Amino acid sequence: MIGPTGVGKTEIARRLAKIQNAPFIKVEATKFTEVGFHGRDVDQIIRDLVDIAVIATKDKLKKRYAARLKETVNRKIVEILVGSKNPDGQRIWREKLENGELENQIIEFEAPPNQPDAAPQKPFGGGGEAFKFQLAIPADLFGGLQFRSKKKMTISEARPVFEQMELDKLISLDKVHRRAITSVEQSGIVFIDEIDKICNPAGQSHGPDASAEGVQRDLLPLIEGTTISTRIGNVDTSKILFIASGAFHSVKPSDLMPELQGRLPIRVELKGLGQQDLYRILTEPQVNMIKQQIELMRTENFNLRFTDKAVMEIARVASEVNDTVENIGARRLHTVVERIVEDYSYNCDRFHGQEVVITEQYIKEHLGDMLLKTDLSKFIL
Q: Are 176 and 54 in contact (CB under 8 A)?
């Protein structure tokens, strides 16, 4: 994807992954170095994607077993409170628990020590992260004895601990790992941003990063299809969707290595956002910037309201500043909106219980100097 900053390249890929319910990772091409240089190599992209898929798979299974987990956890909490041999007392306390009357009650229970799914990972050598060690104690060691510690906390704090304990009994870690690897291999999406920052203009062999072209070479087998070794198994990358994006201001897509261009065959050019696009961004999303400001001021006990003409004026000013200063796309809206509500944000105590209406005239008065060509440097982000 080729397009100026702020047009929504990353958001397109993120929405695509959300619609498909697919494992998704966004990485910056400039964060990686060629194998042999100090830094992260590109294989780490797949390892991080697998970690994301493991967490997502656990969340899916947790939602599937939510009703059973809630029932089991409530029963265990009631047993801690009144014991297991008092059915009448259990019924009374169960009702109180389900009504939320006992959330601040402190209980004491035994819990296994925290055993994260992944041990802290320490890379060895310059940049390779392939050598990692994880201490695993067999469950049947010492005759099946499990080390447990007593914990004391409120019921609201203890509930997630109980849920995790019961979830570990319901699901097999091997099953989670197999599903995570399958989801990565079949529907994983990798978004590589700032791909234009790791290529040099035609005819120039030097650049800011000595290993930039090496990163392009390392990406070739990853995108074409190779097997990456991760802590939970091998991952085949041949069916993973790779999306690369960049603004390509100082370089052209043709300056990338020909082999990399061939492995990214579909090229999409995105145009800069105009006034109507910015207006739609301010009005159509469920939690748009205007609504965010209204709800933010409502926490200070005063109502803020924008007229429709005022919103259109915000879009017009943002579009004009983008055209005359620097085109930073939809990010310009943050600058403009913050400038409009600046006085109310920092002096909100003066407007308690009032309703303030932002009109088109108000915006013109407060943003007039943003459009002056004489001194625009202070408004450049």
A: yes
